[in-house]
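Structure ticket #2291
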Amino acid sequence: FSGTQSGFVWEDDDFRDFLKRDVAGTVFEFGPRSTPGFKGAKPLGLGGWELEFVGWNTVFPLPGRHNLLDALAAVSVAMKLGAGSEALASGLASVKPLFGRSQLFGGRISLLQDCYNANPESSRALLDLVDSLEWPGKKIYVLGSMRELGEESRAEHRALGARARKSKADKLFFFGEEMAEALLGWEEAGGARRSPPLHTEDMALLQKAVLAALEPGDLLVLKASRGLELERLSNAVFDAGWAELPGGEQGGSHAS
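Resolution: structure written out below.
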């Protein structure tokens, strides 16, 4: 690697060939088929993934296929830089989520806080993840506005609403001005008759409604762009004793 220019691109990126073209160096691919030695991944639900490589394995604690791809990218880069299997295994196992990114909190309920950022792809990925989980209690999804989508905002929020109607949520809440379009998308999607989501721009109303819906054993999922400050809802959940902040863990305004 020393003295050369190199890059990495996802093996299934729509622009993979374009990104590799006319590069003054070597562009490597990463992913399930390209990351050296990767043999497979067993999903552990919200516990992340059990990863198997040639000669070693480890548990990577962040859930979702998007996080798995990030792990494979990191492994590909680290291998090219000479990292050994012991360092790779311990490094992956020690990963902790940053604030608002796939944070999982336990307690009387489970709270999945993923509200640092939201775009159409990441929102669909999160819905795919939580829909796939077997869960003994209710699944409650709180979806907030996706900001900075420009002229695509209305169409993308309608698409998110349609996708949410097909989700496995037992209760849905839409938060933010742009989510009015998601409600229209939900209504237009049709399908099995379901109670419409509560849509509001009032955080106090959202907190009251969500807290009233919670029961022990539920899974509460939060997804929104950073500007929505959806961690304010998390704080209400913590304050009401439904979920707990482990020592040193960051919630919302509870963070130092």
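Closing remark: The CA atoms of residues 58 and 65 lie 16 Å apart.
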